[in-house]
Protein 1
Amino acid sequence: MTATRTERDSMGPIEVEVTRYWGAQTQRSLENFRIGGERMRLPLVHALGLVKLAAARVNGRLGELDPKHAEAIAEAAREVADGALDDHFPLVVWQTGSGTQSNMNANEVIAHRANEKLGHPLDGSGEARPPIHPNDHVNRGQSSNDTFPTAMHVAAMIELHRRLLPSVAGLRDLLRDKAAQFAPIVKIGRTHLQDATPLRLGDEFGAYATQLTLGIERLEATVPRLAALAQGGTAVGTGLNAKKGFAEAFAEEMAELTGLPFRTAADKFEALAAHDALVELSGATNVLACSLMKIANDIRLLGSGPRCGLGELILPANEPGSSIM
């Protein structure tokens, strides 16, 4: 039988596996939403860690947290951001639209880990009451309604700059190299697969490279809206219960943590109520996906054969083909 400890919230006591850093609200979500297997994506979990890290540092500087507690929270949040506590984020995406359960998952994990760093065992065997509370300290000056949208923007910006843009730029550069390599080769152009007029094979590959350059420009054009953070708007956009200056200091701290141009949203009501910036990013990624599909289909068709297709390109074999041939 799995050993448990008793956690409590406003609904009363509930049992949690003794080795898990999450608390009562996360456990209730696990039990109430036993549907689907789509767990919250790790980039978003890591972004929540960054949000809690930035908030702890700012709250410490503003005098909202004891410096020792702020440092412990920041250290625990850094572990979340770095992926060291991924196993303690079990929730599926099926939860409230505001992401309350995932926000509390982060608050509880960070609170327990911070208390552990301060000498309070996770199993509750310590003599003194743990000083750091998930809501009162880790979630200080925050609401799920501004924290979760902020984490969405942070995760999107990080994935965009560290993964998507470099990958697309790398493919674009390879296509440019091929365009230069194929520049001397003259071939027939086609309209609706019917012979048209000659062009250079390098021109075709240059066009592919240009498609990706334009795709990169579209993605980069979304950054000013993605960089605007809702944090500091709290529950409905008024900033109730957040210290004056928190929103601006938070955005500056997040920019320093990530090296990305984050700023506080000028209109917190819009930042909480709408996700237009993410829809815009979705549109840009959709255009890029269409470009990649077009390029892949062109190359597949031009490489058809080897005996009875167009056979203009030789595509290296990397595994066996049909099992019957």
Note: The beta strands are 4-9, 12-17, 186-191, 194-200, 228-229, 263-264.
Protein 2
Amino acid sequence: QIEEYLMEYYGVDQVLWVSDGIVGDDTDGHIDDTVRFVNSDTVIAMVEPKKSDENHEVLDKNLKELSQMRLISGKQLTIVELPMPDPVIIDEFRAPGSYANFYISNAGVLVPTFDCPQDKIALDLLGQLFTDRPVIGLSAKKIIWGQGSFHCLTQQEPQGN
């Protein structure tokens, strides 16, 4: 029932669901921290290679779910795995640091970075996917305390009455 509403409201033909979000996400699982479409049949999926990390199981489950999904055409999604950054801890709280919270503009793609080795991997992978515009990494360590990054910061604000 909710899928029908979402499809009608947004004018889309299909809604895809994954189970959970990352630790520190105060929204109980915003998709812009875990999975993002980069074109009509390709998604980046955040993965946590360290099995001891509390995000590993959730992201592994999401990856398995994505691998079973089909588009309306019957085609399987192309999935590009993107590693999670090192944990960002602020006042003993784990902030929801994720490269998936990038912002796509006409002039480029702004990617949050977290001053860790995975930054380069993320920027290189996203650069291979967005060949029509520059991919620019900007430190998000100061803004992630607000529990979001560039995609979250650039959301629309409804017009008031």
Note: Strands lie at 35-39, 42-47, 78-83, 88-90, 93-95, 103-104, 109-113, 135-139.
Protein 3
Amino acid sequence: MTNNKTYHENGGWYFKKNGCLTLSVGNPSHPQIIWDNGTKEWHLYGVLHRAGKPAIEYSNGDVEYWFNGKRHRTDGPAVIYRNKQYWFVNGEFQKCTH
């Protein structure tokens, strides 16, 4: 790393600023932000977004699915924390009625 930036093998540069690494080019297979604690975020056009996979992968294993800037998942919970799961569709919380 030189001058707070490191070249990434798939093109572009990682910049270190405010406790995170940011990739300067948008490659959907690589996170655009990697925080110092290991949490990874995928963004598209400035909003959290990753089709079919979590857009946030926390360093502790928790995940959140986002699509076009909204929590969203139709085939399971959109938010999975250690002992809790939450369902969202297009950003709207879905109550479970069991």
Note: Residues 5-94 form one domain.
